[in-house]
């Protein structure tokens, strides 16, 4: 298969982890006889430095022309320390998601038995954790009107959702549940928010078309608790942009590190693959960021294009790195290797044919 892949490293550790992902994609290309070509483009603070905008036209052009995008991370301390800056690196990512129509953000949260000790939660509790968050990505409070009164003392963020925005991601979530353990949890705040009440109505109506899937509705505060008390309860979680952002970071800690969670952002025409974690500015350039979330995002990319065996090979190589303790310092109690060393190890083991590492 031939694929044109746009590489948007962004800020902080983004470019570093992306380098390791490209190594892995190249190992896949060689092992399975594919041809991947890459074009790099700037986004976020890195783009602001050169072009004064977090999403330059040439970046958007490259993104629109690519078959798929690999995204790094966005944000720097300079802007984190200056929250009132009117132009922010994050706006580049938000606009990109909107321009590409990437409305469905899928964040799989799966416990790897090899590193279960890394979870801050009890082993018996987290063992077998395997759920996916379907986060709506191009609507809600992230994209509503924002206002600050002239005297700077009153601020407003509007949260809007339409039936159409809810149903298109809900369909995707129900279809995913149908293929898995047939349980869908809608997370909202329907006891307070009008948008949440619309989500409930739309999702309940849709659920009639998926009789084999059991629908459960939880308020976000309760969901946050249940996720910690009983993570194996969950199969597919469907939720809005903001709640999905929060729950997914919580999910990454449950399985042991923020450096582990990948995600796929899918629209009608475009697709982008990005780690769930942030730009980790303190680790920038120190060769200590965990490349696994980004590498697992390439596994999602491969799976998205039907390259199932290739995707499994990447996951198996990652698991081999866990087993051999070739891991970065965030994976506690193990040997500590650099970002590039871990990336090299994983890329080097993609062509292993090793049945005992087989996993889905
Ligand atoms: C994420 C990130 C982004 C988000 C930020 C960087 C805008 O936290 O992908 O989870 O909130 O969507
Ligand atoms: Mn986030």
TrEMBL record:
InterPro entries (alphabetical): IsoPropMal-DH-like_dom, Isopropylmalate_DH
Molecular function per GO: 3-isopropylmalate dehydrogenase activity; metal ion binding
Gene3D superfamilies: Isopropylmalate Dehydrogenase
GO biological-process terms attached to the record: L-leucine biosynthetic process
Domain of life: Bacteria
The protein's required cofactors: Mn(2+); Mg(2+)
Record bears the keyword Ion transport: no
Assigned EC number: 1.1.1.85
Keywords from the UniProt entry: Amino-acid biosynthesis, Branched-chain amino acid biosynthesis, Leucine biosynthesis, Magnesium, Manganese, Metal-binding, NAD, Oxidoreductase
Cellular component, GO annotation: cytosol
Isopropylmalate dehydrogenase-like domain mapped to chain residues: 4-346
SUPFAM superfamilies in the record: Isocitrate/Isopropylmalate dehydrogenase-like
EC top class, as a word: oxidoreductase
A Pfam short name: Iso_dh
SMART domains per the UniProt record, alphabetical: Iso_dh
Oligomeric form and interacting partners: Homodimer.
Family the UniProt entry places it in: Belongs to the isocitrate and isopropylmalate dehydrogenases family. LeuB type 1 subfamily.
Name of protein: 3-isopropylmalate dehydrogenase
Lineage summary: Bacteria, Pseudomonadati, Bacteroidota, Flavobacteriia, Flavobacteriales
